Amino acid sequence: MASQSYQLFQTAIADAEKLISIFDQLPNQEARQQNEVLKRAALVMTLTAWESYIEAFLLEQLTKKICGIKGSFAGDFIQKKIDIEIKKLHNPAPEKVKQLSLEFLQYDITEQWRWQNTEPTDARRQLNMWLNKRGDAVHNACASDDPKKPHLVKREDLDKAVRFFKELVKVTDGFCGVVKGKI
Fold first, then answer.
1. Using a CB cutoff of 8 Å and minimum separation of 24, what contacts does 174-180 make?
2. pLDDT tens digits, residue range 146-180?
3. 39 and which of 114, 121, 153, 175 could share a cystine (Cβ 3.0–4.6 Å)?
4. What average pLDDT does range 31-38 have in this prediction?
5. What span, in angstroms and rounded, lies between the C-alpha atoms of 75 and 69?
6. At residue 115, what are phi and psi to the nearest 5 degrees?
7. 3-class DSSP state of 26
8. Cα-atom radius of gyration of the chain, to the nearest Å?
């Protein structure tokens, strides 16, 4: 059964896919050139879906771990501590996800990031690459009027990003059973 955080991700990634679809339906190259913002927005939405997912996932898993002490001094202390950490998680890079999962779940979930032709080290590298690309899309968003100059976000990048994050979330969410076993 998928977690609530996984369902949240599915809704958020669908928004990114809608933006991609709108871009694809533009009638010609000139219209696409004038609407490059849709590709940047789709990339930002894809990474936002990841950020929302990992925040919700960590909270959801910790809540399961501390359900027996909820309302006690220790339970409240742990809950407040993760709430603070989650509010600071604006760029969920692999190092931060590893640190938080070790601290609060007592397990490095980044070691679970394995799927067809992708090992955890490669997944972590790709995640950092996509986070950097999102940062560029947000902070260097000045679109070029020169049609010969390549755009920051290529159309095929969007397919790769969506596919990557769907797999990353799927394997992370599969970690739920491991966490349950450790509670």
1. 174/112, 175/107, 175/109, 175/112, 176/3, 176/61, 178/107, 178/112, 179/61, 179/64, 179/65, 179/105, 179/107, 180/64
2. 555 667 899 999 999 999 999 999 999 997 655 44
3. 153
4. 93
5. 5
6. -155, -175
7. coil
8. 18
Integer Cα distance of 44 and 77 in angstroms: 33
92-150 per-position pLDDT tens digit: 999 999 999 999 999 999 999 999 999 999 999 999 999 999 999 888 765 555 555 66
* Tokens coding 24: 């694809």
Closest residue by Cα to residue 16 from 41, 35, 34: 41
Under a CB-based contact definition with an 8 Å cutoff, are residues 48 and 19 in contact? no
Going by C-alpha positions, the residue among 155, 139, 160, 137 that lies closest to residue 41 is 137
CA atoms of 89 and 97, how far apart (whole Å): 9
In angstroms, the Cα distances linking 160 to 17, 21, 145 are 12, 15, 25
CA–CA separation, 69 and 23 (whole Å): 49
This prediction's pTM: 0.89
Please tell me the distance from the alpha carbon of residue 172 to that of residue 105, in angstroms, as a whole number.
Answer: 13
